[in-house]
């Protein structure tokens, strides 16, 4: 049952399907009812609720975050020395708006398992979000060397795209965002970065293409950025840059 839940979670994340996320949650809950010590089921429950919040699919953001946090705490109690436990709690902290605590958990996860490519992919993204572009690039390159064909390799490309945006390197932004989208086409922040690129260089056909794809997968995601429900860039000056670029694209709260 837990593996069925994990498959449904993966389908939701890579297919952009909120229905599959609900199936993942139901299967994970059934697995936990059978065995409360099933770490995989707690991981799926936490991660899927966090993903629904990230995608702006959650009708009650606070409730889903609370469930995600509880599941992450249960996972940590079951596997306190596992890097993935801190990794998952870090995701929840990030989604709850506590960037400092989230980054600390991600760094703790990496210290527990320096060879975990998944942790490195996501930590590269977190470091980019924090504005630590040099560290983000270093982690992204290292993670790709460790696991170049990993399903989550696009997160390293996303980190590089964020770095390019912060540094106003438009061609690099386009190229890294394009690679990130190829790896996970329904991931909304990747489309946002391509929309930003298109707005900055004045490419209206490209802008419309990616806006349409974004709205099909996560119709309220732009709204979540303007409401500051989700903060892909943590430094105020970088956050303002992103919202200014979205306004340049003709998008408003």
Give the percentage of residues in beta strands: under 5%
Name the CATH superfamily assignment of the largest domain.
Tetratricopeptide repeat domain
CATH topology of the largest domain: Serine Threonine Protein Phosphatase 5, Tetratricopeptide repeat
Counted beta strands: 0
Note the total helix count: 14
Question: In a nutshell, what does this entry contain?
Answer:
With 253 residues, this protein is mainly α. 76% of the residues lie in helices and 0% in strands. The chain has 14 helices and no strands.
Report on the architecture of this protein.
- The chain has helices at residues 2-15, 18-34, 39-54, 61-78, 83-95, 99-112, 117-129, 133-146, 154-166, 170-183, 188-201, 204-217, 221-226, 236-248.
- The protein has 253 residues and is mostly helical.
- The protein folds into two domains: 1-114, Alpha Horseshoe (Serine Threonine Protein Phosphatase 5, Tetratricopeptide repeat), CATH 1.25.40.10; 140-253, Alpha Horseshoe (Serine Threonine Protein Phosphatase 5, Tetratricopeptide repeat).
């Amino acid at each position: 049952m837990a593996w069925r839940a994990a498959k449904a979670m993966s389908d939701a994340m890579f297919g952009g399907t909120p229905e599959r996320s609900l199936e993942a949650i139901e299967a994970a809950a059934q697995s936990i009812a059978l065995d409360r010590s099933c770490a995989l089921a707690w991981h799926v429950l936490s991660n899927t609720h966090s993903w629904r919040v990230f995608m702006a699919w959650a009708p009650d953001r606070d409730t889903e975050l609370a469930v995600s946090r509880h599941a992450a705490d249960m996972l940590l109690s079951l596997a306190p020395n596992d890097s993935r436990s801190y990794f998952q709690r870090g995701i929840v902290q990030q989604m709850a708006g506590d960037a400092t605590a989230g980054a600390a958990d991600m760094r703790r996860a990496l210290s527990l398992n320096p060879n975990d490519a998944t942790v490195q992919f996501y930590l590269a993204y977190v470091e980019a979000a924090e504005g630590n572009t040099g560290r983000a690039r270093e982690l992204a390159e290292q993670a790709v060397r460790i696991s170049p064909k990993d399903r989550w390799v696009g997160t390293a490309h996303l980190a590089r795209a964020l770095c390019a945006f912060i540094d106003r390197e438009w061609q690099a932004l386009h190229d890294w965002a394009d690679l990130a989208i190829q790896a996970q086409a329904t991931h909304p922040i990747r489309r946002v970065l391509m929309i930003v690129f298109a707005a900055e260089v004045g490419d209206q056909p490209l802008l419309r293409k990616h806006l349409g794809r974004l709205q099909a997968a996560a119709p309220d995601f732009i709204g979540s950025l303007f409401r500051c429900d989700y903060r892909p860039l943590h430094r105020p000056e970088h956050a303002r840059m992103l919202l200014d670029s979205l306004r340049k694209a003709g998008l408003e709260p």
